[in-house]
Amino acid sequence: MSDSLQMKSPPESKRGNWTGHLGFILAATGSAIGLGNIWKFPYITGVYGGGAFVLVYLICVVIVGLPLMLAELIVGRRTQKNPVGAFKNLHKKGSLWQGTGWLGVASGFLILSFYSVVAGWALAYIFKAIAGFEGTAEQIQAEFGSLVASTGESIFWHSMFMLMCIGIVIGGVKRGIERWSKILMPSLFVILGGLMIYGLFFTHGGMQAVEFLFKPDFSKLSAEGVLSALGHAFFTLSLGMGAMITYGSYMKRGSSIIRDAVAVSILDTVVALVAGIAIFAMVFSYGTEPAAGPGLIFQTLPVLFQQTGPWISVPFFVLLTFAALTSGISLLEVVVSYFVDERGWGRTSATLVMGGTIYLIGLLSAVSVWKVPFTSGTGWFDFFDVLTTNYMLPIGGFLTCLFVAYVMKDADRADEFGSRGLLYSGLKFFLRYITPIAVLVVILHGLELLPFMEYGN
Ligand code: TRP
User: Fold this and answer.
1) What is the pLDDT of residues 220-235, one digit of tens each?
2) pTM, whole model, 2 decimals?
3) How does DSSP assign 236-272, residue by residue?
4) What is the pLDDT of residues 94-107, one digit of tens each?
5) What is the CATH number of the domain that holds 203?
6) Which of 69, 109, 327, 335 has most ligand 1 atoms within 8 Å of CB, for mutation?
7) Which structural domain range is residue 21 located in?
């Protein structure tokens, strides 16, 4: 069976393809660049003290992110299948490796359910920014709390965001995802460039922001920070759940996988850093704290936006929404591609039914007073976030890594990679020995099982 795979490349499928190289790059960077870059990266950098954390994060992108992205793209483009079909195809029918694909589809399902709630806040803040932020700092900060606490508002914005995702994914690979990525991503780059210029040259905090991000002070770096950097490298590159398998499966043969993976990783990283410069420039110029935590952009920034006015605040939240949207569609596409390929559903019904179901699950996260049963008041939002980010994604990434490193046929793998040169040997080395160990450490940390950490219980 799989011998035939070795000899001839599988046929280009009729499921849809990117029109070309640029289509893939923009869609994949669209998936990678998201709330992770603009919301989470700046705030965890602030919490973990700046430069040293950034340096560790960059190292993690190279030793964990890049090899895993290559592994996922190799699996996807080789099989031209969704994550479940891909593992089945490369191993055998009924193979347990399919479970990795299942885990991925389930992760996409759960991540989108709460991702959409945060994206909904971003959408809501576009309108708040247009109206203008008014009142004392306390009042402006309290507005975020009341948005989160208001069931009606949260549900409304979550609904709007899910409708947008569904609307795009229904259009298909070329006419939906690619077309919208080609509109949203260039706009995102332009807005971000503008905000960076504003931060660097029109506030007093520009240089301080650059120093904060790029001048490492290792005395501020904790073991906790290192592990967060590793976990974040994962999330920000959309790894560990087959999103890159799925997007890779729509790639045409012939383009260089390594060049594309490097391009996507660099763009993702640059966007995170530039967003960091823009945000911290404003934070420092008004003498506020960089370590504000998750409220950094929804609470700290709006207070500053009172001084800057809507010319800065509106583009900022538009940027955040665009980033979230192109990531949201990639999460939905993983789920949809499974039902289309493996279950023979039509794209429209798969998108409507699954998008609708994810929307309903998302209500659990949108309604902040609903708590997970049998816990001491854990909200669903936190529950899904921790479950996926700390467990499901790292485990999915770990298994994918082992599969490509030890199970997949060398001929298939090398053929897809495009060469057997030094780079290929390097990739194999990382996938065998470095990446899985690093990911395992993240998993053990998630389980609070690392012997050298103090877990306080
Ligand atoms: N990478 C996106 C971000 O930084 C989130 C995301 C989209 C994602 N698709 C994913 C994360 C798949 C993990 C897996 O916001």
Assistant:
1) 888 888 888 988 998 9
2) 0.93
3) HTT-SSSHHHHHHHTPPTTS-HHHHHHHHHHHHHHHH
4) 789 999 999 999 99
5) 1.20.1740.10
6) 327
7) 11-446
